[in-house]
């Protein structure tokens, strides 16, 4: 069931989103060769606690960490580890913040040190795809308009869009209806309404969109070993368009 959010609920989620955005800004300054994703995870848990918040995904279906940390060919839900990041890697840090009952969800892919021009272009395309999807999140449009905008742009740049993981509604719980596909046909799917809060979070692969699951039953990675990137925002649909609750600017 889809619930339209009240102004009070949206304000709580916006406060969580602002803290999440600040967390990402701090992570951006930490990313460098030699740091481990477990160190980043520990920082996030400590920083959220200092600000009266908790990592909502920790304990979700037994997930043991405050963040998902997906490196290189890992698509999503990577486990933070003691393995040091190295020059040229990319790493996606994904988290859900709970601040006073308001939830916000955002993922960001970071370049570790200097990356190749090819890799930098892929990150740029993935980030652009997120905002192309957000542009379509206006009352009266349909979910398919979001997916089509993302898919047509990404495939036009000769990359692929992951099918197995999607955006979603968010509110009192981390995952709510509707499911937000990052591919699809314009004019198809549920009509968007003012007051809906959703995540848009395209995962873009350098090669095929197909995935395989690690033995931990959480971490998804590309079947061809090529890179995967992701950018995600939580947005609320207002009468004049989408408002980004997790904006880092």
From TrEMBL:
**Single GO term (MF):** metalloaminopeptidase activity
Partners and quaternary state? Monomer.
Query: One of this protein's GO BP terms?
Result: proteolysis
Q: What CDD domains would the database entry show?
A: MetAP1 (cd01086)
Give GO cellular component annotations, separated by semicolons: cytosol
Q: What class of enzyme is it?
A: hydrolase
Residue positions binding a divalent metal cation 2? 105, 168, 201, 232
Q: Which residues bind a divalent metal cation 1?
A: 94, 105, 232
Record's protein name? Methionine aminopeptidase
Question: What job does this protein perform?
Answer: Removes the N-terminal methionine from nascent proteins. The N-terminal methionine is often cleaved when the second residue in the primary sequence is small and uncharged (Met-Ala-, Cys, Gly, Pro, Ser, Thr, or Val). Requires deformylation of the N(alpha)-formylated initiator methionine before it can be hydrolyzed.
Q: What family does the database annotate?
A: Belongs to the peptidase M24A family. Methionine aminopeptidase type 1 subfamily.
Which is an annotated Pfam family here? Answer: Peptidase_M24
Q: What is its EC number?
A: 3.4.11.18
Sorted alphabetically, which InterPro entries does this protein's record hold?
A: Creatinase/aminopeptidase-like (IPR036005), Pept_M24 (IPR000994), Pept_M24_MAP (IPR001714), Pept_M24A_MAP1 (IPR002467)
Which positions are annotated as binding substrate?
Answer: 77, 175
Which key words are in the record? Answer: Aminopeptidase, Hydrolase, Metal-binding, Protease
Cofactor needs: Co(2+); Zn(2+); Mn(2+); Fe(2+)
Q: Could you tell me which NCBIfam families the record lists for this protein?
A: met_pdase_I
What does the note under cofactor report? Binds 2 divalent metal cations per subunit. Has a high-affinity and a low affinity metal-binding site. The true nature of the physiological cofactor is under debate. The enzyme is active with cobalt, zinc, manganese or divalent iron ions. Most likely, methionine aminopeptidases function as mononuclear Fe(2+)-metalloproteases under physiological conditions, and the catalytically relevant metal-binding site has been assigned to the histidine-containing high-affinity site.
Q: Which PANTHER family match?
A: METHIONINE AMINOPEPTIDASE
Q: Which reaction does it catalyse?
A: Release of N-terminal amino acids, preferentially methionine, from peptides and arylamides
